[in-house]
């Protein structure tokens, strides 16, 4: 067979995480690899109630096509929530509903990227975003970071030297994979820079409501005076990923492009999922639900970090996340996390995600990402103990 | 603001249908414009039962992430149904679940099309497909058709003369928009030609189960010996569009690309929607449900065609569909259906979709598409009467 695919498919790789997750589904594996919410915290009973109500009250509407921009009452809830929690000032019509925020990453690539255009992102960055943008054949420059996120002097230098930068992709709150959060001063400086260069920004905020300590910080979107910031939200981490409901809030000129792209991509998000989520917001206390998540995940974060302190050998460092789902581990130079995983951790039935795929231009093989939201305390403790042994072995072999 | 979008966005237009649907949502409008199933036939009670069962029995799985390829029990049901009804020989692992079949149209464009590659399609063709492919900047050649679908001599001529044809997009059963079906002999000839040229084919089959008279014909996929046919199916027309569940069945080499594309596009289809659909297949008689649709839609088809015979003036022709949701009207030369709609039909509170957007290279302004699935008998009769008056006026003004 002589099938000829598009040139862009040469760039396409399956997500290392998704492939790895298949390996880690054996019940004996303690997996810190995914980014999955804890299923025992899903509001299953509420959803039984909500889905019955939606179908009984409005089944013929729920099962029918709806508009591309999405179900208006859900967009109203989400806009209000953003304004209450993130200091934004958006209305329902500023939002488009997407299949999780992942879908909007694809839309951003599609709307902005010609081949060889440049995308800026944090170093490291979310690999699902890198994969989504890659389909449109850009070049990436990953901006150096420190413990407070993207370094603004480095960003400005890159913008001065490159005129094909189409947008900047950032996760200022509890970043995936690093767990880092940008302080207020850095956010302000960032907005100054992007206003000066008039560069669109994708602000991805899947974990923002999952803060375990400290003050909430204003979103970049709330500081956006020029309509440059596209805010990506999702219900995947705070309610359920299985319903595939995310959204983007953006300036009208950009949102109009996303609307046309959404039409061609899959017409609309699920009508019934949108109506069920809106009904959940109507009838249940979302804040109380999220408070519970914060309590459990914050505790697990502490358990993991305490165990790392206890079991990880000297020379290994890791971030201290104030929220979100991840911490980021840096091994001594010379240890390859992919090899560590394959030869030591998986045989010990422990899994994580090696860090290299989070760097769009590769390298940094001595890093990995750890998720703490999806394992109970005792498994976290035991997994970190086993992982500590694996790392020790690897260090001894250096 | 100096936002610079990608070149491809110049090609992007909102679907004429989706924009039109907004105009036609006033209750007084008799709309033949959409392609919507009849909401009074949705199995709402069954879905209340099914969604309760899925959440009660398996809520934590239903609300969690699942695999990109989709929920295995649903893929098994769909594969079996294809084999039973379409004479194919596929297994669950040949299928990937998508958000309606629209999403796979986007994936096909993404997987195959470099800028200026050629897509072949029927003339006219489904405008949602044209829009989806357009994002990847191809050229289209629409192959001439007659009352039996694509004309094979014309197809072969085009393939001889063009070496950048990447795939052929066809709807052999009850085509959207024309309502035409390819007879068996033409299907065989088509497969001979595509086997000779080794050209991939997207066989879009949203309406295949909605046959109102005559024998079911084998799908192109069932005749595919070289793994060239990508079969696109959907539950939108036979169960519910609101759940956004479609699928593609394709050769492993192609399916692997779609899997990677799906990961980057939105990770996966809704877990809970997939489980609910699988449970519906488990617990309910899908065949009996579809038999009911056939009865109602087949009757409406007859009501519409009888009314057209009665009320449409001489010189207007239309197709006789054996199934599906649409008939295609050709007006006398010199009448522009867009003008007819705006100046005569909408003021009479009747709506349809003008035909030009169904031709990727434009023209054919004297055509339009009519849907008969979504209106009761009396409204069909009255709508066609009013439309007949509108057309008469337009002819008189010629």
TrEMBL record, chains A, B:
Assembly: Homodimer.
Keyword entries, A-Z: Aminotransferase, Pyridoxal phosphate, Transferase
* Listed SUPFAM superfamilies: PLP-dependent transferases
- Top-rank taxon of the source lineage equals Bacteria
Look up the record and name the cofactor or cofactors this protein needs. Answer: pyridoxal 5'-phosphate
Q: Name one Pfam family in it.
A: Aminotran_1_2
InterPro entries, from UniProt? Aminotransferase_I/II_large (IPR004839), Class-I_PLP-dep_aminotransf (IPR050859), PyrdxlP-dep_Trfase (IPR015424), PyrdxlP-dep_Trfase_major (IPR015421), PyrdxlP-dep_Trfase_small (IPR015422)
Q: Where is the Aminotransferase class I/classII large domain?
A: 47-385
Name of the featured protein: Aminotransferase
The record's Gene3D superfamilies line, in alphabetical order, gives: Aspartate Aminotransferase, domain 1, Type I PLP-dependent aspartate aminotransferase-like (Major domain)
Gene Ontology MF, one: pyridoxal phosphate binding
Q: Tell whether Cytoplasm is among the UniProt keywords.
A: no
UniProt GO BP: alpha-amino acid metabolic process
Which protein family is named in the record? Belongs to the class-I pyridoxal-phosphate-dependent aminotransferase family.
């Amino acid at each position: 067979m002589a099938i000829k695919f598009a040139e862009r498919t040469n760039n396409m790789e399956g997500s290392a995480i998704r492939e790895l997750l298949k390996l880690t589904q054996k019940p004996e594996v303690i997996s810190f690899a995914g980014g999955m919410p804890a299923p025992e915290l899903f509001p299953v009973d509420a959803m039984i109630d909500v889905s019955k109500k939606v179908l009984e009250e409005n089944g013929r509407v729920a099962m029918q096509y709806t508009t591309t921009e999405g179900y208006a009452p859900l967009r109203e809830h989400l806009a209000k929530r953003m304004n209450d929690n993130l200091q934004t000032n958006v209305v329902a019509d500023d939002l488009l509903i997407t299949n999780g925020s992942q879908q909007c990453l694809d839309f951003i690539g599609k709307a902005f990227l010609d081949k060889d255009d440049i995308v800026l992102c944090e170093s490291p960055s979310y690999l699902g975003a890198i994969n989504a943008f890659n389909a449109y054949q850009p070049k990436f420059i990953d901006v150096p970071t420190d413990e407070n996120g993207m370094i603004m002097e480095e960003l400005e230098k890159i913008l001065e030297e490159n005129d094909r930068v189409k947008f900047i992709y950032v996760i200022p709150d509890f970043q995936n994979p690093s767990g880092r959060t940008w302080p207020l001063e850095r956010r302000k400086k960032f907005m100054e820079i992007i206003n000066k260069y008039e560069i669109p920004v994708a602000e991805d905020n899947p974990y923002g409501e999952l803060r375990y300590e400290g003050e909430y910080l204003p979103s970049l979107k709330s500081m956006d005076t020029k309509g440059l910031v596209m805010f990506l939200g999702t219900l995947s981490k705070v309610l359920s990923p299985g319903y595939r409901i995310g959204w983007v809030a953006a300036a009208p000129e950009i949102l109009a492009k996303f609307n046309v792209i959404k039409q061609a991509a899959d017409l609309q998000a699920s009508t019934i999922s949108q109506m069920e989520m809106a009904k959940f917001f109507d009838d249940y206390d979302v804040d109380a639900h999220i408070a519970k998540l914060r309590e459990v995940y914050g505790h697990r974060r502490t358990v993991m970090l305490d165990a790392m302190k206890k079991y990880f050998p000297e020379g290994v460092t890791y971030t201290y996340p104030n929220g979100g789902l991840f911490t980021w581990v840096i091994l001594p130079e010379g240890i390859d996390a992919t090899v560590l995983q394959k030869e030591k951790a998986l045989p010990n039935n422990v899994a994580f995600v090696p860090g290299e795929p989070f760097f769009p231009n590769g390298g940094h093989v001595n890093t990995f990402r750890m998720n703490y939201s999806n394992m109970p305390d005792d498994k976290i403790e035991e997994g970190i103990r086993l992982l500590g042994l694996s790392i020790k072995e690897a260090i001894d072999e250096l």
